[in-house]
Every structure is written in structure tokens, then in C-alpha cells.
Specification:
Layout lengths: L6 H9 L12 H10 L4 E3 L2 H4 L2 H4 L5 E3 L6 H12 L15 E4 L10 H4 L5 E4 L5 E3 L2 H17 L20
Parallel strand pairs: 1-2
Antiparallel strand pairs: 3-4, 4-5
The protein binds zinc ion.
The site of zinc ion (ZN) has 8 residues, from loops.
């Protein structure tokens, strides 16, 4: 569960395969309550949240993300703190699982030139967004591996997250 300052981190945690929750409008109290109810780790750059009772008493598990880090540095910090490995990517927009889809199922939803590449397609089980593997996916992979290297945690080389469409990750 990412606080309001960590929207970019949430997107990259999803790319790394984790179900990151983020809502820019969520208030501190809601973050803490949901983290408690849903047994989520709370990721925050807000030292005020650390003073909330449930957090200070250890009822909510929390990772403090130091301010001033780039998104990839934030990701690396969290991967190291929680000893996370790269998993199959989730949807960077909503965190939904990506389900492989046949080319014919995504016809009309991806550019013709992509259809012709013969790449793998995926559809988000949450928001139905279509993803595919390609050059943009490769660049996301590269940045994820970079974050892993910074974190010093392991990777699963055989597993590659799906690629998002042409719009870049908003971090
Ligand atoms: Zn989605």
C-alpha cells in the first residue's frame, strides 16, 4: 500500500509483479486502516504516518521510503527491505493479473504493426487493458533488472513481465 507520494513506485512494484495499492486521494487514516484490514505492507515517505498508533505499535508493517529517491531507487529500496524477487508483471495501471490472450482476441485493440510482430499478448484481469511484449517491455525489464541489481536481491531470469503499450510508464 503506497502513500500519496508514491504513485510512481506503485506502478513499478506492479511491473515487478506485486499487488501495489495506490490512490492519490487516500488519506493517512485510510491507508493505515486498509493496510491493517488487508494485511498489506504500508510504504510511506511520510514520517507523520509512522507516528500513528497502529504503525508505531507494529500492528501495521511499514517500510519508510526516504524522500528524494528516484522511482527506481525507491523500488530498489523496497525490494531490498522486503527481500522481494521479480515476478510476472501485473498491470501497471491497476495491479490486476495479466492473462495471456490470443492475437485474435485483441484484434482491433492493438496497432496492426504490433499484430504483425507475432508477439505475446496479455489482457489485464482487472481493467481489460491489453499489453504485449516488445521494445517498450524490454526497456521496463531492463529498469527492473537495474533496480534488482541496486537492491542486491535475486531475479528469475526465465520470467519476463508483459509489456505495456506505447505510452511510457508514468513515474
Ligand atoms: Zn489493469
Amino acid at each position: 500500500m503506497c502513500d500519496a507520494m508514491l504513485g510512481g513506485l506503485a506502478r513499478w512494484l506492479r511491473a515487478a509483479g506485486y499487488d501495489a495499492w495506490f490512490d492519490v486521494h487516500a488519506r493517512d487514516g485510510e491507508l493505515v486502516r486498509r493496510a491493517l484490514e488487508e494485511h498489506r505492507w504500508l510504504l510511506t515517505s511520510d514520517s507523520g504516518i509512522l507516528e500513528r498508533f497502529a504503525v508505531s505499535e507494529g500492528l501495521v508493517r511499514c517500510v519508510f521510503v526516504p524522500p528524494g529517491l528516484s522511482t527506481i531507487q525507491q523500488l530498489s529500496h523496497v525490494m531490498r527491505a522486503l527481500d522481494l524477487k521479480l515476478r510476472d508483471s501485473r498491470c501497471m495501471d491497476c495491479g490486476g493479473e495479466l492473462i495471456e490472450a490470443a492475437a485474435v482476441e485483441v484484434e482491433g485493440q492493438v496497432p496492426k504493426r504490433v499484430q504483425d510482430l507475432g508477439v505475446r499478448f496479455y489482457r489485464c484481469a482487472g481493467c481489460a487493458k491489453v499489453y504485449w511484449r516488445g521494445t517498450h517491455w524490454e526497456s521496463i525489464q531492463e529498469r527492473l533488472r537495474h533496480a534488482m541489481q541496486l537492491a542486491g536481491t535475486g531475479t528469475r531470469p526465465g520470467d519476463a513481465p508483459a509489456r505495456k503499450s506505447d505510452e511510457g510508464p508514468k513515474s
